[in-house]
């Protein structure tokens, strides 16, 4: 175990039992139904860097976020926090203090009945970082200033703030326990584009100043490109590609990643005909055999239907890990359009 | 992000500025029922100081004054505005003292229901699983028994188990317990429903990430956000509890006659209704109607005013 790894997941999976009640199930003679929200994911985040996970709605991104902070326990596999098993780390308040989470919805993530100063001070009080009210007040004021609000805003209630300001409060709360690792679950997707940029800049600025490590969850590739060191692309509960951000955006390898890149709006390509990814995301209750992407993949063949691809270094760009038989066999037509127009 | 703190308006100014006050002043029925309720409650609470007579002071009772009709009737005595009963007690004073007992029982019973209901509802909604299943089945079973039946049962058991003197002393608490215990499922269900919504909100998850204990999350995070509907049901239930107590007292199993409530007064007066002394039972009845109706109307208004969809 290298000690510059902040967080590592090893083949971690989380399944949900979505069966109907027992009596109905017996009457209909059907088995248990299991939703494989996350189905075997491995990645590692180095200290001081940002790993982003991208993917369509329902691909399991948020479940991963909840797994790595311990809101869900893994069905199998393990999550290691700074070399220690997550469950163990969560039992120790000193370790727990080092991880925090920022949520998607700034309207639901702040208790509407609490004053802002109490919201921000909650981690300080919960971890007993300081007991004296004067010190807590000073720390809350400092945090509010740090995220670009006024210390006087502490006495207001959350409903007196806009979405972007609320997200700043959310960040201040997350920072109040002096964490080292922040899980950000779509922190900007509920905000206006102009406010998104402010929040992202704030987060990058804080990372540079405080040496934070981020796990950043998003469906927005433009946002991901701005903040990430490494990017993982998720599809149906699995990672299909994991690469340094520049490599991923310049030479995407997996057919799904390539299709996503094609979908990014681009000034230079205005007017170009786009080839959308056909079909729907299959259900994670009954995922396709072999490679989960094969029903929608233009490069799929019999092997893709039968055999689940593993994450291996890609030909040509060995810093990329990709789970694709076509890439492994060299029939992925790099540089050509994915589908002949 | 204001540079200076806005001057905090004081509590009264803020209350007068609020939506609640606005919707209150816009509804004449609500203002009227608030006034009536205030008179009822005020008269009851202040009875020992403002009642014209003390109906429990045996020394001041004059049997000669028995069965006096209300003051505006032919034989009326201006000393006894609403007349007197068979023992010469002033009906108005008896009503004021009776409303005191009725309201005391009502408030305490609702308080008991609310405490049990909130505890059970929070636990069921937040913990889920077996705790939820067990608590809600108990609530379902409870709902299959009528309130009066349970109250009669509890009262009967206590009556049989304890000697008479002891029973008379604790009769008030028995009634409070009997009514309170029969009403908690409606609170538990409401709180459970709201808790199920709140527990999945991200502020609760944020507290869980920090590692705040389950009990603390329930009490300090979830509870303040589920209290709104509870307040409404509690108001509506106060009227119900007062009525239940009156029913029990009317049936003779409620509070002892030494501490007559409105229900007891109605029952006592009922014996004289057909011999012409109508005021002994009618006036306590009217007082009961006014009290329950005004409290219920206030509860209805509160329910509508706190429901953002009806604004």
TrEMBL record, chain A:
In terms of one coarse class, where is the protein primarily found? membrane
Q: Which Pfam families is this protein grouped with?
A: ABC_tran, oligo_HPY
User: Which species is this record about?
Assistant: Falsiroseomonas frigidaquae
Q: Name one GO molecular function term.
A: ATP binding
Subcellular localization: Cell inner membrane
- NCBIfam families to which the protein is assigned, alphabetical: oligo_HPY
- Family, per entry: Belongs to the ABC transporter superfamily.
- The portions of this protein that span the membrane are none
Annotated protein name in UniProt: ATP-binding cassette domain-containing protein
Q: How does the record say this protein sits in the membrane?
A: Peripheral membrane protein
Q: Where is the ABC transporter domain?
A: 7-261
Tell me yes or no: is Nucleotide-binding among this UniProt entry's keywords: yes
UniProtKB/TrEMBL annotation, chain B:
User: Where does this chain mainly localize?
Assistant: membrane
Is Transferase among this UniProt entry's keywords?
A: no
- UniProt-annotated location(s): Cell membrane
Q: Is the keyword Transmembrane helix assigned to this protein?
A: yes
For this UniProt record, the keywords arranged alphabetically read as follows:
Cell membrane, Membrane, Transmembrane, Transmembrane helix, Transport
Chain ranges passing through the membrane = 29-51, 101-127, 139-158, 170-191, 222-244, 278-302
Q: Any idea where the ABC transmembrane type-1 domain is?
A: 99-299
Q: How does the protein associate with the membrane?
A: Multi-pass membrane protein
Family label:
Belongs to the binding-protein-dependent transport system permease family.
Q: What is this protein called?
A: ABC transporter permease
Its source organism is Falsiroseomonas frigidaquae
Which taxonomic lineage is given here? Answer: Bacteria, Pseudomonadati, Pseudomonadota, Alphaproteobacteria, Acetobacterales
